[in-house]
Description:
By secondary structure, the chain is of the alpha/beta class.
Amino acid sequence: MSDTTVKAIDAIQEAQKIAFAPFVFQATVALRKLGVLDLIFERRKKGGISLKELSEKLSISEYGIGVLLEIAESSNVVSIHEDDKFQLTTTGYFLAYNETVNVNINFTNEVCYKGLFHLVEAVKTGKPEGLKELGQWETIYEGLSQLEPEAQKSWFDFDHHYSDDIFKEALDILFKKERKSIFDIGANTGKFTIQACNYNDQVKMTMIDLPGQLNKAITNVKNKGFQDRVNSHEINWLSENPQIPKGAETIWMCQFLDCFSKSEILKVLKTCVGSMDENSELIIVETFTDRQKFDNAKFILEATSIYFTALANGNSKMYKATEFKDIAAEAGLLIKEDIAVGEYHTMFVFNKN
Length: 353
Ligand SMILES: C[S@@+](CC[C@H](N)C(=O)[O-])C[C@H]1O[C@@H](n2cnc3c(N)ncnc32)[C@H](O)[C@@H]1O
């Protein structure tokens, strides 16, 4: 054992927390969904709220709320004060009201929870064995447009939460130089394409994605009135010989390459290089595990890798920046700029080598 400075009693407590982690998670989900955390928070200025009052106000048995609050107290989500009144701890407050925690909980519960049960199988086969809990597809990306509404909302909220905030800063960087056309690879719902059209009234965009996603993105673009400046190109990067249009000026890939294994990333990048000339730029934006300032951000990325293994495709993950640099060099790209964007993202700008 390497951690001999940790007391056995603390180590067993940590081990038991992990053994029952799904119980604590589901109890937390229940406390959120039943409105218990909200009601406790509303009563914070009155010293909290008792179990009896919670039960009366929410019309749920004292037994039901009681078992949830017992484990929540041991897990430092709530605390008990004078007259047996419950209050939220700071952790409880974040579980109820922090936006990042909120999208992570919903994503875990609505998209991943059942599928994670198949993780062992997924690791053995290299296939997303948990995906069958959501639908019959080879990868989750083929099924995104067909997910059940709650799972679909949670997936897109999770996805958008980690990229929307940096689009403005990224566009400021991108349009420091003139850009006539951008290929938006992994265009998803068209959010970046629409934002780029809003930002610059000359730029022409080409959205590149799987057919299901592309249809949704095209509808969104039309709804914003940008159809004259936006083309679309269907692709499945996992097919035999995927092709993108020739003559790329700027290729944009945000949180896209993490959907693929290293050898698939190499194939994507080589295909892109084939469309570039010496003035073209290929821009990758990612959240890299070795570029995070905070442990909780690195932890989120590691959990996201488990989602990729069990549910998304069985063979991708959140990577280190160093790994991407190596693959890009092998694909024939030369790194020109390495820029931190927002708190968590890195932007690499490449030329053809
Ligand atoms: C995580 S989303 C990123 C969306 C967006 N670029 C952003 O920054 O939020 C990944 C995108 O890659 C697309 N994608 C995944 N696998 C693909 C494949 N095999 N072929 C084409 N597109 C794929 C998905 O449909 C999805 O739109």
